[in-house]
Each structure stands twice: as structure tokens, then as C-alpha cells.
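Note to self: user wants both folds in one dump. Writing first protein now.
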Amino acid sequence: MAGESQLTIISWLDSPMANYGFSIQAREELSGLLGDEDAYQLFSKIVLDPPATDSDEQRTQRSWKAMKLLIDDLNATSDGESFLLNTAKAGLLAKDIFASIGKPDTNILHVRTLLEALLDAHPSPVISAACAGGLDGMKKHLGPLLSAETSSQTLPTITHIILYGCLGKQGKPSAEQTVIQHQQAMQKTVALSHGHRRKFVRALSEWSVLAQLVQCISAHERENPNIGEDVCETILTIVECLGYPEKSLSDGEPQKKDISEAIGEEHLLAPLGQQEWWDPLVSMLDGDT
């Protein structure tokens, strides 16, 4: 039955109706076609595990359509409008996304775009999935984002995950804060609990995230000459957001960060005070001159 349902989804994605998102008509049609089948799994499989028999063009077109439909569903304004996903399913999808990163037939741009949209809509399940298993979980889930095959496209994604997991909300460097700080303060956000954040920060510390980023430069600079600049930008963004967190606004006035909100994320920056962390960077700079 699952195979038949997957063929049904593929046929539907190839139809003109798939170009118009999840309209009422589309939802009714899919509900009739799929019955009790879990539609989110069928759509996500097109993005995360596309059929090897499809041509590259078919895989890319169907993957893009399925990704866009999943993101449209994530952006639904209320639970009543969501057709595919809820919080429980979001956690399962996060695990599937992490497991798919680096697979040869997937489109990494589609995968990371879906992951970032899922993080914004359902941060708790995504952060929980990222750090599930502690250090081993970080290696398994975030490690592939720094691989030679993916890092050129996924550094913004790992930055997004790190800042959301540490701060409990999207982190923005100060240059952007000056423009949109008030808008962010007024915007409804999905906050993470202290428990989720502490668990994530602990796993991130055990993984030595700043050391992993420096290692990414030395490991992949031959394949990607721009990796050094990209990683340094990632490090600077993390340092700025964790070391100088944005202040909330109340009646237009900046407020000091509540000390009770801290969960030790600043300790992730400790390697900056250690010479052994800087030595590889200095060696690479010496090699460039």
C-alpha cells in the first residue's frame, strides 16, 4: 500500500494542481486519494529519499514541489489549517531530515531549506532531535552539515540551529538588530524551554563546536577555497550573538538581559581564550601568505 501511495503522491506532484499549494480542493483530493496514509511522510520522502529510478530533472522538480508544499503547511496560521504536520510529526520529520543530509540523490538546498523552515515553525522538536544522544547525537546529526559535500551550503543552517538552540529564539548579529530589533520584539516567536536549551548547550559543548568549525576549514579548503571565509563568518556570527546577546525592548527602551535566562551558552566561547584553538587558524593564515 505504501508503494502505491508513493506513486499516487508522485502522480499528484506531476499534476497542475500541485503548482497551487494546499488549496481546499487539493486537501480534499489528497484526503480522498490517501485515506489513512500519513501524507507528511509521503511528501517528505520525495525530498529526503527520492526514487533512484527518476531522472535528475524529475528528482529536482518533484523535490522542489514537495519541499514547497511542506513549507507552506508549516507556515499555516493555525493548527486547524495545518494539513500535514503537528508537533509530534515535526520531531519525526526532523530526525528524517538529519538522517538524509549528505545522501547522494538528495538536493541539499531543498533539504536544508526544509530544515530551517521546520526549525522556525517547531523549534523544540528540531533542537531535541539535533542533540538526542548527546555527543554521539551531535556527531551524527550536525556533523554532516560540516562535510565536504554539504558545508558550502549548510553553514548558515548550522548557525541557525546553534543560535536557536542556545538563545531559545533566532539570533541576529548586531548590524541587523539596528534595523529590525523592534520588529522582532513585537513579533510572535516560539520559545524554547530552559531544559531543552541546557541539554542542547551541554551536547554542543561536548562536541566542541568551535573546534569542529576550525577543523572544517583545514579538512575542506582544498575542495572549497572559500571555506575559510565562510567558516570565519559563521564563527563571528556565533561569537557576536552569544557573547553580545540582543537586548529586549520595552516601550522602546532597551532592557538588560534577565540573568535567569542564561543557561551557560557563553561557555561555548571558552576556546577563544585558548592558544591551541588559534594555532590552526594562524597556521592556515601563514600558509596563505
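First done. Writing the second protein, which came from a different request thread.
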Amino acid sequence: MDAITSSSAVVLTPTQQTLLAQLKQNVHIHLKPEAFLAILEEIGTHDCKSIENALLNSDIRKLELDRCLPDASQRAQNVVVRGNFFVQVLRISNIAVPSRMAEQDGNNNRTLLVQLTDGNEKISGVEYCTLKKLSVDTPPGTKLMLTELHFRNGMILLEDSHFSILGGHVDTLVQSWLVNKQIFAGRLAKKQVEGEDQPPAFEPFTISKSAVHVESIALPKDGDRVRGNESKDQKSGGKQGQKKSKPQKQSTSSSKPPTENRSREPPSKVGERHHKMPNIERPAS
């Protein structure tokens, strides 16, 4: 079997090509030839099991892996995709509790948010059914094999039957994760000891007499009110005297005779007075 040349001009021997094919079949890892040769040089052996362990214990974001997850347009269609998808855990948090307690499992009150990557892009999965294989204590760098992807609004609905744990230990990621957990646990314990995490004690609301201040206002007496009104009248009278009196105009209209007060007659008499015909004597014939 002749050596083959990839599109990136990296030559693989028949033995290396066989190992690469076994990796794709066993753990469904699609390594580029450059990354595969770098791993072989690092571990110094051509044993397939050793290569698998080296891949599980590596941060796949630093390896040149082919994209395996569906693209964003397919994830947004709420579809179910079946296959074999090699991914790595980045972070697991409990979104059913406040953010300050997100690193705690929460017992019955738990909904896990799992952040994953295939080495090229990130994707999130949410705990759809109670997961026994994953928890907030699962360290980052753990490798999973997803076999069934149920997408809803761009996220994966995770169930135990849809994936398997491959393992793996990435030392740099685990050390950083443990330090953060210790810092978080120390802060939470300090708040609980000092009582900062508890609500304040109830204090009844009371108003002391010394705190009440009433401002007194002096009201005028009756005699002061009378004198005040007289002074106002004097001032108004002086102002009116200063004004010039204007001559009154004589009315040129003729004075009308006073109307006599006539008593109203009843309607029946008024009709008789107007409709009574005079007596006219007829001439003798």
C-alpha cells in the first residue's frame, strides 16, 4: 500500500493511514493529518489505544479536528439528528438555583446547562430528563459521544440514553476548575458564617416622642383681626378719594309716564270685552 498525500501536502505512510482509519471507527474522531502526526510525535508510539488515550486527555480545541456538529441553520429547525458526535465538556452549571449557587448540585432542584465543543464551535445542552451520568462535579475536559441530538431553539435536549461518557482528563482545565470551586466554596462559607446570606432580622417600627417635631404657629386674636380690617378700610378709602370724580351725563331720553297697575282680568271677561258687538238701531222702513 503506497503512501498517500492529503490536500494539505502532508504525506502519511500506510501504517499511519491504518491508524487514522481505526481512530475514526473506534472513537469517531476526524483528525487532520497534521494533528495526527503531531500526536504520534508526542507519544512516540503507533499503538492505537495509546493514541486514543492521548486524544481523550487533550484539549480538542487545540487539535485540528474536522467539524462534526450540525450547522446553525440546521440546529434552529428543531430537528433530531442521529450519528456519532465526539465532543468535550467545557462547563456544567445548575441554572435552577441563583447564580451564586450554580456550582452546587441542588439535589432535587436541579436543571443542568452543559456547554460542549467539537473543537471548532460551542454548543449548549440542557437537562431534559434527570441525568445520572453528568453533574456539576463532572470536570471540564471530559469527552462525550453523542448519538442522538434533539434540537430545540438551537439547544440540545440531553437524556442519558442519547450519549455515553468516554472519559478523559485535561490537567490544565481540571486544575483551573478546582481552584475556582475552592474560591467559590470559601466565599459562600464566609457569607453563611457572617450572616450575609440570611435575610435581616425583623425590627418593629416605633416612633419616639423626641423624634416628632411640631412647629407652633401664632394665630391672631379677635381684637387684632378687627384693627386689621379697619386699617385696610382706611387705606382703600384714601385711595378712592385720590381718584377724580367724573361728571355724570344727563340722560336725554324722555321720561316715560308711569305705567298704571292694572289688575289682570280673567280670560273669560277679556274675551267678552273684545267680542261684544255694539247695539245699532235699524232705520224704520
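Dump finished. Worth passing along: The chain has a mean pLDDT of 76.
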